[in-house]
């Protein structure tokens, strides 16, 4: 009997060892693939820099060659003027008394020569190809505009995961006004006449999305401009909705992940643990990215695509809702709504 138990435990031990081996192998595979992708991206950016630097060198060389030719031509014209000028100076210094030529003839000769010189050395004869220069400048500007339209690449990628979402009025605290489109939550000091609902927050100024997600990758952007306090995040539907306990607040338990902003300070919350962020910028849009395969919740400052904080959740155990809290109006300083950006 004892031997059977030992054999059984040995078999279970081997099963776990086998699983550990596969998990470690998967971990190494992910690290290797991620490293290869990073290396490839770095090489592509280096190649783009080389291509742009070479194109800049060629373009500037073309302009420099034309500038050099024009400057040299002007040098020649300047030298021609200087030669005649020196000759006239000599005549002025030495006089014409020892010369058989009548003084009036001298005046005529130099007038003719000066007129010929002025005609031959007209500065308007030397010109840069302004049409070509303008075309080069336009092409360079078009290239810049195209590059800017393609970056940040990360933003274009995240946008591809954008998921449509509307807020669920039946979950909104009675002091929140939800827009008819379901994309906006605004605090009001007036208690709204709303139906009783078991899913409604009765103390915390939260509202959840109507939709929930349990797979794939998703991205949302929320407009928080003009506000000094707000909370945004993702939560399981099991988040407590009733009473004054902190469990109803976003990020104060293991069922939600939250980014909070108050009076210039950002704090990430999960499991009741605060993570103060060393960020001084005030962002007008906040991005929220969720990856079920990666077990990831990431917050970003969309204005400059600045990563703010990432939670590595490991594995989500339930469907997730988008959650918003616009906060109290704080004597009019926080009266603006929070709004989901649909594009």
TrEMBL record:
- Looking at the Swiss-Prot or TrEMBL record, what is one Pfam family this protein matches? SPRY
Keyword Transferase set for record: no
Write out the GO MF terms: zinc ion binding
SMART domains per the record?
PRY, SPRY
Alphabetized Gene3D superfamilies for the sequence: 2.60.120.920
InterPro entries on file: B30.2/SPRY, B30.2/SPRY_sf, Butyrophylin_SPRY, ConA-like_dom_sf, E3_ubiq-ligase_TRIM/RNF, PRY, SPRY_dom
Q: Which residues form the B30.2/SPRY domain?
A: 145-343
Keywords for this entry?
Metal-binding, Zinc, Zinc-finger
Q: In the UniProt record, which is one GO cellular component term?
A: cytoplasm
The superkingdom of the source organism is Eukaryota
Q: What protein does this entry describe?
A: B30.2/SPRY domain-containing protein
Q: What is the lineage of its organism?
A: Eukaryota, Metazoa, Chordata, Craniata, Vertebrata
């Amino acid at each position: 009997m004892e031997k059977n138990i030992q054999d059984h435990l040995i078999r279970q031990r081997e099963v776990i060892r086998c699983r550990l081996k596969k998990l470690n192998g998967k971990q190494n595979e992910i690290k290797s693939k991620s490293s290869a992708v990073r290396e490839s991206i770095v090489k592509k950016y280096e190649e783009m820099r080389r291509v742009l630097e070479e194109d800049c060198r060629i373009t500037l060389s073309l302009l420099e060659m034309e500038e050099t030719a024009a400057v040299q031509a002007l040098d020649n014209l300047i030298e021609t003027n200087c030669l005649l000028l020196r000759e006239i100076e000599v005549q002025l210094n030495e006089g014409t008394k020892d010369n058989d030529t009548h003084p009036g003839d001298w005046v005529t000769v130099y007038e003719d020569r000066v007129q010929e010189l002025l005609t031959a050395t007209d500065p308007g004869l030397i010109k840069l190809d302004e049409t070509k220069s303008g075309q080069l400048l336009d092409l360079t500007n078009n290239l810049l505009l195209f590059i800017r339209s393609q970056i940040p690449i990360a933003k274009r990628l995240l946008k591809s995961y954008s998921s449509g979402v509307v807020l669920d009025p039946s979950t909104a605290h009675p002091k929140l006004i939800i827009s008819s489109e379901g994309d906006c939550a605004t605090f009001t000091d007036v208690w709204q006449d709303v139906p009783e609902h078991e899913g409604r927050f009765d103390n915390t100024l939260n509202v959840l999305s109507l939709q929930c997600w349990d797979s794939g990758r998703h991205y949302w952007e929320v407009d928080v401009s003009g506000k000094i306090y707000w909370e945004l995040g993702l939560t399981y539907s099991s988040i407590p909705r009733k009473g004054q306990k902190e469990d109803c607040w976003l990020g104060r338990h293991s069922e939600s992940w939250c980014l909070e902003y108050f009076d210039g300070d950002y704090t990430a919350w999960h499991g009741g643990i605060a993570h103060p962020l060393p960020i001084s910028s005030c962002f007008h849009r906040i991005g929220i990215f969720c990856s079920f395969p990666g077990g990831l919740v990431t917050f970003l400052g969309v204005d400059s695509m600045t990563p703010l904080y990432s939670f590595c959740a490991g594995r989500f155990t339930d469907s997730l809702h988008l959650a918003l809290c616009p906060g109290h109006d704080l004597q009019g300083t926080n009266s603006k709504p929070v709004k989901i950006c649909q594009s």
